[in-house]
Design goal:
By secondary structure, the chain is an alpha/beta fold. It has 30 helices and 27 strands. The strands form five sheets. Strands 11-12-10-7-8-9-13 form a seven-stranded mixed beta sheet, with helices on both faces. A six-stranded mixed beta sheet has the order 3-4-2-1-5-6, with helices on both faces. A six-stranded mixed beta sheet has the order 23-24-25-21-26-27, with helices on both faces.
């Protein structure tokens, strides 16, 4: 790049301060990107790549987008994981100014976005900060658009596992970390990261995964996580002398992570972010853990079926505000472990079942805007006049909402009514200051209402009077000159001017002063027109300046109420979420669960909330389920393919989750404990990128369950061991089931669905194991699935019947039936016929001794027993043989 050009030199100097970002440089009506940024921008945005100084030996790649449409282009870049620095003109261009001063006004990153184009109405956008130390890992999460800010830290050998679980629970869009910890962090979260990018102080490193992985990784300077400076930063921001009031005293890892998070937010926003008014220290044990595998297997917020919206969230989300939707989603991703908290929600939902109260509340809430994000934009300096009107309109509903729930019986609704502030002063200020329908941009003028400021009113009068005089002057000049098409026009270069067609040039008076000659017209001015122009332009310039000043004062005045506005927003969000749960319960015939401190799960006529919602009404077959930690600890469920085993497994988990967010549940009754974690191993998947087969993934997931389940956990296993040979898989499944039943530390309430009918023997040997089956029957050669869970053992899986429904060729089905018949009769002699020696031998062996696979430990003992001629044995020989066999199987 030719650094002798002042503008390009300015660009380079600014670019050095923001490595690892795409610098969008304002030039007139466009944002331009240069050099490598231009190449990346053109590729990602699919726009034309051109060049500056094309005729030189070293042309400079460049591309640009119009400033009025830049928001959508920027959003596209950020969604792809890029950081974008917005460089604006910091002063107006004036006569004689060779180079306008420019500066970066914001850095937009995946985790710090506040633009509507980058925000989903009912989804939170989290920035995560992870700061490893010798013995701890600090972590912090910030939702910049709303001001939510939390921190924690982990220690012990499983600290990185807990960090991963935290990231999975909150799904941040970006994770920041000290550059010194890059290798360690990558080793533990590499599979989840999308891109590695670096800010000042570190070398740029663009290793990373593909575009579909969850979050971007961003390395920062190590000093951004310094404990001393971090403590000072946090205390200064919150206006406190220490951090003990936030539960952070002595939590150095959490403080480091939180400081890095706040510093990054301030750096990217170029603002103090005053709406981040508190930080909360939390323990991950405060909520039920649902890892990504479980969330996916249970269709909690994302369906396993690509492109199909059939999730638990879709079923229960009847919220009418964005902030209520985000809160409900958060409850669903992190269900509570506190019985008192759950009970207060259930009581509020119960009261909101009153249709008159519920509909009144929901009607008023529909007129409330997203106060959380409005307050965020207000404090980050990006609020518009339309935003302020939305805020005032929302506050108009608060007195009515308080009135609606002021006489509520439930404690939670009473607390909410006390935390909804009416703020009449804010409403009145905005109503008297801002016009009803303000322009999209403050610079367009006309935002401040007439009568609010006397100086502004006078300037408007001057400008309006001068414009009227100019309009009158135009008509008089037409009459005086006889030029009927004479026009008075305006542009930014010449100001006001008189335009006359070339055909009427001979009629132009001598007192006109020529300004410009065009192909078909001449442009003139007069001393009188110039005088009025000065009045108009002077007044308009001052009006724009004054409107900006007044709008800033209004913003600052409203900002003073940030705390009460945020309190109101959170109360309204909670009210919305509770009313939504009541609406769901009413529409779908859910009942209030009974929570207890024991270990029993007792569900009567339970239904799968998602399946039920997307099939015809009345078609779903309900089922009863009973589990405890003693007599019914391990339920072994057998039955036909497509019989509904997986559905029963999932519905038990979903009912438990709904109960622990404070929702009613799809059942006729439900008695439930508080479980600490729900584990699932359902379905088949592989991880080829890491060299892991389907079976390896299955075993890895199963190992995590066996190592971490507790007696308070709920474990759902579906078809363990199906990814390997029959005997291997059966052996593993048997051992897993025994472990979950017997382990003092890891024995959990378990539902184990399987096609290994041999596992039903466990119920004969394990005190807490019970056999259940999903019933099916055959009618006229057709399989009828009853979808009913009953005690007992299934004898068939009806796999060939399902294969026929799937459309396998008839010849394949016929051969399968033949093979199945032989396997069932002669166990392993698939390729023999009834007359073959091998088949007869197999039949003989089968008839001589049907030994349970798990009854003996030494196959040679079985072989020896088969070769004994019982008719010729003496008593002594029999005793000797038994003694030898006993020694072999001990």
């Amino acid at each position: 790049m030719d650094e002798t050009t002042p503008m390009l030199r300015q660009y380079l100097e600014i670019k050095k301060q923001y490595p690892g970002t795409l610098l969008m440089f304002r030039l007139g009506d466009f944002y331009e990107l240069f050099n490598e940024d231009a190449i990346v921008g053109a590729r990602e945005l699919q726009i034309t790549l051109t060049a500056r100084q094309k005729d030189s030996k070293n042309p400079i790649p460049m591309c640009g987008v119009p400033h009025h449409a830049a928001a959508n282009y920027i959003a596209k870049l950020v969604r792809k994981g890029h950081r974008v620095a917005i460089c604006e003109q910091a002063e107006p261009a004036g006569k004689g100014t060779k180079l306008v001063r420019r500066e970066v006004v914001r850095v937009i990153t995946p985790g710090t976005a506040i633009e509507p184009q980058l925000l989903e109405n009912k989804e939170s956008v989290y920035l995560a900060s992870v700061c490893p130390d010798v013995e701890t890992v600090g972590a912090s999460l910030m939702e910049l658009s709303t001001g939510e800010f939390i921190a924690t830290q982990f220690s012990g050998s499983d600290r990185w596992t807990r960090v991963r679980e935290l990231l999975e629970a909150y799904s941040p869009r970006e994770v920041i970390f000290p550059s010194r910890s890059g290798e360690e962090l990558s080793a533990h979260v590499e599979g989840s990261a999308r891109r590695r990018s670096v800010l000042p102080g570190s070398a740029v490193d663009d290793r990373g995964g593909g575009p579909d992985t969850p979050f971007a990784l961003t390395a920062l300077e190590n000093g951004d996580f310094d404990i001393s400076e971090g403590t000072v930063l946090l205390c200064s921001h919150f206006g406190t002398r220490s951090l003990s009031g936030f539960g952070l005293d002595g939590k150095h890892g959490a403080i480091r992570a939180a400081a890095g998070c706040l510093r990054y937010a301030q750096f990217t926003q170029k603002a103090t972010a005053d709406h981040i008014s508190e930080i909360r220290y939390f323990e991950t044990s405060d909520s039920l853990v649902l890892d990504q595998l479980t969330l996916r297997n249970l269709d909690i917020v994302q369906s396993r079926a690509e492109g199909i919206k059939q999730t638990l969230l879709d079923v229960i989300d009847e919220t009418v505000t964005g902030m209520g939707g985000r809160l409900l989603r958060g409850w669903l991703l992190r269900p509570s472990l506190k019985r008192s908290e759950i009970e207060t929600r259930l009581a509020a939902v119960d009261e909101l079942l009153d249709p008159i109260l519920r509909e009144k509340v929901r009607f008023l809430l529909r007129q409330v805007s997203d106060l959380e994000r409005l307050v965020g934009r207000l404090n980050l300096g990006s609020v518009t006049a339309r935003d302020l009107n939305s805020l005032a309109g929302s506050l108009e509903q608060t007195p009515k909402l308080v009135g609606a729930i002021s006489d509520a019986r439930s404690l939670l609704l009473q607390v909410l009514s006390e935390n909804i502030f009416e703020l009449p002063d804010v409403r009145e200020l905005i109503a008297t200051a801002i016009v009803d329908e303000p322009p999209a941009n403050l610079t367009d003028g006309g935002t401040i209402r007439d009568g609010f400021n006397s100086e502004l009113d006078e300037l408007r009068s001057i400008a309006g009077g001068a414009k009227r005089l100019i309009a009158d002057f135009e008509e008089k000049e037409r009459q005086r000159t006889g030029i009927s098409n004479l026009r008075i026009r305006f542009n930014n270069v010449f100001g006001y001017y008189i335009e006359v067609s070339r055909s009427n040039a001979s009629k132009v008076p001598e007192d006109y002063h020529r300004r410009q000659t065009l192909t078909n017209a001449e442009r003139f001015t007069t001393p009188q027109l110039k005088e009025w122009e000065d009045k108009v332009l002077g007044a308009e310039a001052r009006m724009a300046e004054l409107e900006s000043e007044l709008f800033q004062k209004i913003q600052n005045k409203v900002k003073e109420e940030t705390h009460r506005l945020q309190t109101t927003a959170r109360a309204l969000a909670t009210l919305d979420a509770l009313a939504a749960l009541a609406e769901t319960a009413s529409r779908r015939n859910y009942v209030r669960p009974v929570l207890h401190d024991g270990d029993e799960i007792e569900i009567k006529n339970g239904r799968h909330p998602v399946v039920e919602a997307f099939i015809d009404e009345g078609v779903f077959i309900p089922n009863d389920v009973y589990l405890n930690n003693s007599t019914d600890r391990l339920l072994i469920v057998t039955g036909a393919n497509m019989g509904g085993k997986s559905t029963v497994l999932r519905q038990v988990a979903l009912i438990q989750i709904l109960a622990q967010i404070g929702s009613f549940v799809p059942a006729s009754s439900a008695r439930l404990p508080i479980v600490d974690r729900i584990w699932t191993r359902v379905g088949a998947s592989d991880d080829l990128a890491s060299g892991r087969s389907t079976f390896m993934v299955e075993m890895t997931e199963t190992a995590a369950i066996l190592h971490n389940a507790t007696p308070r956990s709920l474990v759902l296993l579906d078809e363990i061991g199906r990814g390997t040979s029959t005997f291997d898989g059966l052996s593993i499944a048997w051992a897993v089931a025994e472990y979950l039943h017997d382990s003092p530390k890891h024995a959990a309430k378990t539902i184990f669905a399987t096609h290994y009918h041999e596992l039903t023997e466990l119920a004969e040997n394990l005190a807490g194991a019970k056999n259940y089956q999903m019933t099916a029957t055959e009618r006229d050669g057709e399989v009828v699935f009853l979808h009913k869970l009953q005690k007992g053992t299934a004898t068939k899986s009806y796999g060939i019947a399902v294969a026929r429904l799937a459309g396998l060729p008839g010849s394949v089905l016929a051969r399968a039936k033949d093979v199945l018949a032989k396997l069932e009769k002669y166990e392993l002699a698939v390729f023999s016929d009834d007359r073959s020696h091998g088949l007869r031998a197999a039949a003989t062996r089968s008839n001589i001794a049907q030994v349970s696979l798990f009854a003996v430990n030494n196959e040679s003992a079985v072989d020896e027993l088969r070769n004994v001629d019982l008719d010729r044995l003496t008593a002594e020989e029999s005793k000797e043989i038994l003694t030898n066999l006993k020694q072999k199987i001990i």
